[in-house]
Amino acid sequence: MIVSWALNFVIGKIALREIPPLVLPGIRIAIATLCLIPIYCWRRPKQSFRREDLPRLAIVSLAGITFNQFFFIAGLSRTSVAHMAVFIAITPILVLIMAAAIGQERFTFPKIAGMIVAMSGVLALELSRGNEGLATPLGDFLAFLGTVAFSIYTVLGKTLATRYGSVPMNMLAYSIGTVTLLPLSWRERATFHISQVSATGWWSLAYMAVFSSVIAYLVYYYALARMPASRLSAFTYVEPVLAAILGYWILGEPVTWTLAVGGILVLAGVWVAERAA
Questions:
Q1: What is the pLDDT of residues 156-199, one digit of tens each?
Q2: Taking the CB of residue 116, how many other CB atoms lie within 10 A of it?
Q3: What is the pTM for the complete model shown?
Q4: Range of the domain at 128
Q5: How many structural domains are present in the chain?
């Protein structure tokens, strides 16, 4: 799952060369939804969704798919692969904060210390002028909003994933994502010329829809139903390292000292906070 998501940053950059950032999320999620339909029909849900769960199901779906995917693509189009991945890496910190707010976790001194260290790494990234224009404050902010959305998805989806299973949860989330994102893509159709998309562009889109969306999300929710949300999100600390390496190797994006220091601080802070969990 983490390898698939790390490679997704690079593949997304390649897809954005030919597909506009306001068009890509809608098409990606629509394809992913079509891929999920036969899986959903094969794996019949254990039970129908309860009426009292519908508000939370809607919030989880909008946060995990609609807002997360929109801000992910918007951020990726305006910042570097490495910066994007580092912001994704603060997911465990945001999960801890949100889980503590609703009583799932408790704040301790090591957790608070880890949060401070991680946030100092983010500050170091923003105060640096590395990556020579590849990373922008707006892109980083959009990446942060996407991380916030995914953290909400993780915390609020914990109980629901256990109750209903990963396939029904993802089918609902992606269906809502399709309904909300496709109209945005349709409005931007004038900027998208389908005949001009190369084979590389289509293969990139297919990878983002099938591997990083359907397969990785199913694995994520399968694991979420079987371990604490904060422990699962801790696996994301591997993601920025892999993404930075892949960004350098495939796209030639520079890895600066400030990026390395900021990334190390973020990962160290996450490690300290998770060790205390």
A1: 887 887 788 878 888 899 999 999 999 988 888 777 888 889 99
A2: 14
A3: 0.82
A4: 2-275
A5: 1
